[in-house]
Design brief:
Elements (H helix, E strand, L loop, with lengths): L2 H7 L4 H8 L3 H8 L7 H11 L10
Helix pairs in contact: 2-3
Length: 60
């Protein structure tokens, strides 16, 4: 997924993104590193926080 690159391009830390989506830094790290699957609810909140469409965060 492109979450990490979008987050970094906006100058956001994992901690800041976690705060914006109501999650933990550890959970954001696990999502970005592929350690856990991301649910559609989490993906929607992350997309909203990054001001992008969900489809922009999914690499095919």
């Amino acid at each position: 997924m492109a979450i990490r690159s979008r987050r970094e391009s906006q100058g956001l830390s994992q901690s800041r993104l976690a705060l914006m989506v109501g999650s933990s830094k550890a959970h954001i790290w696990r999502i970005e590193s592929g350690k856990v699957g991301v649910g559609i609810d989490d993906l929607g909140r992350i997309a909203d926080a990054l001001d992008v469409e969900v489809r922009e965060l999914i690499l095919f």
